[in-house]
Design goal:
- The complex is a heterodimer.
- Chain A is an all-alpha fold.
- Chain A is built from five helices and no strands.
- Chain A has one domain.
- Helix content of chain A is 66%, strand content 0%.
- In chain A, helix 1 runs antiparallel to helix 2, helix 2 (37-55) crosses helix 3 (57-63) and helix 2 (37-55) runs parallel beside helix 5 (112-136).
- Chain B is mainly α.
- Helix content of chain B is 76%, strand content 2%.
- Chain B has a two-stranded antiparallel ribbon with strand order 1-2.
- In chain B, helix 2 (28-51) runs antiparallel to helix 3 (78-101), helix 11 (269-291) packs antiparallel against helix 12 (296-323) and helix 16 (398-412) runs parallel beside helix 19 (457-475).
- Chain B is globular, with a radius of gyration of 22 Å.
- The mean pLDDT of chain B is 88.
- The chains are: A mainly alpha, B mainly alpha.
- At the A-B interface, helix 4 of A face helix 1 of B.
Amino acid sequence: MKGMTIIVKEVTTLVIGFILLYSINLILTGHLTPGGGFVGGVMLACGFILMVLSYGKEKVNSLISDRSTTVWDCSGAFAFLVIALLGYFAGDFFANFFAQPGNFRLFSGGTIPLANIAIGIKVGACMAGAFIALTLFRGPAESFPGGKL
Amino acid sequence: MINILPLLVAIPLGAAFLLPLLEKFPAGPRLSRTLAVITSAALMALSLLFLTADNITYWMGGWTPDSGALGICLVLDHLSAFMLALVALVTLVATLFSLSYMKRYTAEPLYYCLFFLMVTGMNGVILAGDIFNLYVFLEVAAIASYSLVAFGCGSEELEASFKYLVLGTVGSVFILLGIAIVYNQTGQLNLAAIANTLPQQNAALSMAAAFFLVGFSLKAAMVPFHAWLPDAHPSAPAPISAMLSGILIKVLGIYALVRVFFDTLEMSQQFAYILITLGAVSMVIGVFLAVGQWDFKRLLAYHSISQMGYVVLAFGVAGEMLLTQKFNIASLALLGGLFHLFNHAVFKSLLFLCSGAAEYATGTRLLKKLGGLKHRMPVTSSCLRIAALSISGVPPFNGFWSKLIIIIATIQAGHLWLGAMTVLVSFMTLLSFIKVQRYIVDGDPSVSVSSAKEVPFSMCLAMVILAIICIGAGILLPLYQKIFSDGAQSVITEQFTQLVRLAGG
C-alpha cells in the first residue's frame, strides 16, 4: 500500500478540508486581519504536502501534475501584474482604482483582496510545485528541465 | 514620460511570467524566442528614451508624500539612466546570442523566464528609491542567477551553483542586517529619508556600514570575497556568463554600493581607504590568478575580478577626494570608473560570447585544445582579438581610454604607487591575453577546431555589435562623454537624495 497507515489517511481526510478552508479564509480576509496572500498560499501548499505525505505521490499526482502547478504559479503572478497594470491605466502603477468606502468589511479593500487572491494562488502553486519537483525528478541530467541535449 | 518609468520593471516581469506557459506547446520554443527578442528590444528602446530624459521620481499607486503617506518610489537620475541603458544593451546582445546557442538545451522557455526575472531584478535595483525594495530586487536577480548558473544540470554546474547560492545568501544576509540597523537608527527605509534623518556617526551606523560593505563586496566579488565567481561564471551557459560578468556584479555590487555609501550614508575616510584597498587588492590578485588558467571561461572570470578592482579603486579615490573637497579630481575618477564599468561590460560580454561560440563550434573551452580558430571561424576570432586588445588596454580600443583616465585620476589624487600598480596590472592583463590569442586565434587548427564551422548568424550579429562598440566607444568618447560626466556629477551632488527631497516638498 502506498503512503502511510490507515490512521494517518483517515485523519488527513478529516482535517484537510479545514486546512484548505482556513487557508482560503486567510487569503480572503488578508486586508482585514493578520494573514494575506502569502500566508494563505503557504497554508494551501501545506495541505497539499500533507496529502502527498499521507497518500503517496502517485495518487496526488493524478489530481495535480507538476505542469499544472507551473501554470497556476505563472497565472497567479501574471494576474498580480495585471492588477498593477490596470491601476496604471487608472492613473498610477498599483493605484487602488475601485477603492470602496467603509472599513472592516469583506469588500472594502478595492484591489487589495484581488491582489491577495493572486498572490495566494501563486505562492500555493509555487510551493506545491517545488515539493513535487523534490519528489519527482530523479535520474540523469537530461531528464531535468534545462539539461543539455 | 514619467508615467512609463515602471514599465522598465513591468515588461520583463510580465514576459517572465508568460514564458513558462509556453513550455509544453510544440511551437513553444519558437514563440519564446520571438517574445524574448521583442521584450529586450522594447527594454532597449525604453532605456534609450530615458537616457536623454530629465530626473524623475515616480510614486507607486499615487501615494506621494503630499498625500500624507510615504509610499514606494522609483527614482531615475543620470547614473541610473546610464546603468539602465547598459543593462538593456547587454540584455539585447545576450538574447540575440541565446537564440541559436540555447537550442542545445531543453526547456528554452524556462531559460528565458529566468533570464527576464534576472533583468527585472537588475532594473528594479537600479530604479529602487528605498533600501528595502533595493534588497528585494537584489534577491530576485540573485536567485534567478543561482538557477541560471545550474541550468545545464551537470555535476559541475550544480556544485558551482550551490557554492554561489551559499555565498550569495551570506552576502544578502549581511545586507539585510545592515538595513535592519539603519532602520533601527533612523526609522526610515526610503534612501532619501535615511539621508535626511541620519544621526551623528555612531558605533551602530559604522557596524551597518561594515555589513553593507561585506554584503556588496560579496555580490561584486572583491578579493577576499571572490571565491564563488571563478566557479559560477564559467559554469553558466555563455550568454548568462556574459550577463553575470557584464552587468550583474556591477548592478548588485558596485551600483548598490554607490547608492548606499555615496548617496545615503556619510562617506568617511576609513571607508574610502577600504574601497581603495579592496580595489587594489582585487586588481592585483585577480590578474595573477588569471595568468595561470588554462580554461578559457575561468580565465575570463578571474579577469572580471581584476577589472572590477579598477572600478572600485576609482570610486574609492573619488570618495577620498570628495571628503577633501577636491571635486575636479573626484569627478575625473568617477568618470573613469563609470567609463571603465561600461567598457568592461562591453568587452567582457564579448569575450564570454566568443568563448561560448568557440565552445559551440568545437565542444571544448580548454586553451590547449583550441587553436587556429582564425582559419575556421573568422568572425569569432576577429571579435575575440578585438575584445582581447580592448581588455588589455591597447590604444585605439575603449579599454585604453578608461584605464588612462583612472590612472590620471589616481596620480592627481597623489597615489603614485597606485597608479604604477594599475599600469602593472594592465601589463599583466596584456600578457594573459597574448596567451589567449596565441593559443586560440593563431597557430594551426587543432583536432577539435579543424572540423569546426562558423557559428549561426544571430550569434555572429551579437558579437559584431559588441565588437563595433569596442572599437568606437574609445575614439568617439567626446561625442557622448556627457552621459558619463552627468552620471559622475549626479553622484557628487547627491542628486538622488535631492530629487526625492524636492518631490517630498
